[in-house]
Design a protein that fits this description.
The strands form 3 sheets. A 6-stranded antiparallel β-sheet has the order 1-2-5-8-9-10. The chain has a two-stranded antiparallel ribbon with strand order 3-4. The chain is globular, with a radius of gyration of 17 Å. It is of the alpha+beta class. The chain has one domain: Extracellular Endonuclease, Chain A (3-Layer(aba) Sandwich). The chain starts with 5 loop residues before the first strand and ends in an 18-residue tail after the last helix.
């Protein structure tokens, strides 16, 4: 499903996005749009969209975890509001992950764009299920809570790429570069093929190495937060 701010491949069986892709620039990350927390079912998901109430499972509480973060769309209130469709959500551990370590990674990605000189970055985000995934929810259509999550970044101007993998669990605050993994590992775990528009040789080079996270200054710390 293509929106003005992102595209999502929604899986009606897991009721998660298989992946969400967005393209970040300083202009997209700057503006007056506000987070309204207007979570809602996605009418384009043909009746398979989760509802906000589907996440209220007292036995297995999970946050409604954005895959394309609301703070990535500050340039536009409609785009920010679109990020709250439930097809853009995945069940994430709340304290220590969605509200902490995962958020820190999202902020670091925005800082790389706003402060680090990486002004045209494609971001692909999604779940990794693994053996520890579990079903949550109270209704007949449950939601699969993933074991982990990935992000793949591609700097269009510099031709650089990097991958991250975080288990869906609470962490103590950890530098984002501790979660870097080869993109080839993420392809094995997800079954997805990344960077397919590039020549095969370039894909092999970018995907086989862990690489290092792109540095950025600290001057925009307040700009990158939700």
């Amino acid at each position: 499903m293509c929106r003005d701010g992102y595209a999502v491949s929604f899986n009606k069986e897991t009721r998660n996005p298989d992946w969400v892709i967005e393209r970040l620039s300083p202009a997209a990350l700057t503006g007056p749009a506000k987070r309204k927390d207007n979570f809602r079912a996605d009418p384009d998901a043909k009746g398979f969209s989760p509802t906000p109430q589907d996440y209220t499972d007292p036995a297995n509480p999970r946050d409604r975890g954005h895959q394309a973060p609301a703070a990535d769309f500050k340039s536009s209130q409609p785009l920010t509001d679109d990020s709250f469709y439930m097809s853009n959500m995945s069940p994430q551990v709340g304290a220590g992950f969605n509200r902490a370590q995962w958020r820190f990674l999202e902020e670091d990605v925005r800082a790389a764009v706003l402060c680090g000189g990486h002004q045209d970055v494609i971001v692909i985000t999604g779940p990794i299920y693994g053996s520890s995934a579990l079903w949550i929810g109270k209704g007949p259509y449950k939601i699969l809570s993933p074991a982990a999550y990935f992000k793949v970044l591609y700097d269009v101007q510099r031709g650089r790429a990097i991958g991250f993998r975080l288990d869906n669990k609470a962490y103590r605050k950890t530098p984002s570069d501790k979660f870097i993994v080869p993109i080839s590992q993420l392809e094995v775990e997800t079954g997805l093929d990344f960077l397919t528009a590039l020549p095969r040789r370039d894909q092999n080079i970018l995907e086989s190495s862990k690489g290092s996270f792109w540095g950025h200054g600290q001057g925009c710390a307040n700009e990158v937060k939700d």
